[in-house]
Design goal:
The protein is α+β, with helices and mostly antiparallel strands and about 260 residues long. The chain has one domain (about 25-260): Alpha-Beta Plaits (2-Layer Sandwich), CATH 3.30.70. The protein is about 30% helix and about 30% strand. It has an eight-stranded antiparallel β-barrel. It is elongated, with a radius of gyration of 19 Å. The model is unreliable at about 1-20 (pLDDT under 50).
């Protein structure tokens, strides 16, 4: 788990229904020691105002902070931040001038004080993995992902020559049932994300699926997700779809901060 990702998180997440256009997401997985929890919380509260300014500037669509479970120090990551973009170029170029956004967010602070504060941010956490993703598919709905949203973030490993088969299975075989569950109120949304960088056989995962729920009551009340009766052909397609990927790891994440 120490190497968990070169990889691969709604959602998570995250790009949920901000727009119907294709979204691009930057996932940053954080390792935070127990004794750093308070300092890390202060760090993200500081950054929250800067990301709010970046949204106003049009540099990003939004930013999220998720708390991850299990999240033990030997179980991967404790937090996930997500930046959401409409434009992959902006995403890969860093999403605008961060210092300019910081100066607007904190006009009373000197440039040197801002630089010192930004540099101190790195001491409260270890940015363990950075993943660039594109949204491939999602369910339809009006879910606006309030604070308290719960997401299951599933990390999938798919061989490079098997992408088309796997993505077709997600969209054509699995998505209709996900949509049915959304329509019935059993879940809030579902989406499929594909790694843009890093990619390759050595990466931990290649895709992420994100199942979102409005809260833990909906999460634990979903019981048997599907009451669909499949034909023999559909059952085969379902099994073939499952066989096309390896579910490497699944996190349960709770949205604790959000900027839109």
């Amino acid at each position: 788990m120490k190497k968990l990702f070169m990889f691969t998180a709604v959602i998570l997440f995250s790009g949920n229904m901000i727009a119907q256009d294709k979204l691009y997401l930057l996932f940053e997985f954080m390792k935070v020691d127990n004794e750093q929890e308070t300092a890390y919380g202060e760090t993200e509260s500081f950054w929250e105002k800067i990301h709010d300014q970046r949204v106003k500037n049009g540099d990003i669509i939004g930013w999220d902070l998720w708390s991850m479970q299990p999240g033990g120090e030997d179980q991967g990551y404790q937090y996930l931040t997500v930046q959401v973009f409409k434009d992959p170029v902006k995403m890969f170029q860093g999403g605008g001038d961060l210092m300019a956004a910081a100066k607007k967010a904190y006009p009373a602070m000197s440039e040197q004080d801002l630089i010192n504060k930004l540099n101190q941010s790195a001491k409260s956490r270890d940015l363990a993995a950075r993943i660039y993703l594109e949204q491939i598919d999602h369910t339809n709905g009006q879910f606006d992902m309030p604070v308290g949203t719960v997401a299951t973030i599933n990390l999938m490993k798919v061989a490079l020559d098997n992408y088309e088969k796997y993505e077709n299975a997600e969209s054509k075989t699995f998505k209709p049932d996900h949509q049915k569950q959304v329509d019935k109120g059993n879940r809030a949304s579902w989406e499929l994300l594909r790694f843009m960088s890093p990619i390759g056989s050595a990466t931990y995962a290649s895709h992420i699926t994100v199942d979102m729920f409005k809260d833990f009551n909906q999460y634990f009340g979903r019981s048997n997700d599907s009451d669909t009766v499949y034909t023999a052909a559909q059952q085969k397609a379902f099994q073939d779809g499952l066989a096309s990927r390896d579910l490497k790891w699944a996190y349960t994440a709770t949205l604790i901060k959000k900027v839109r």
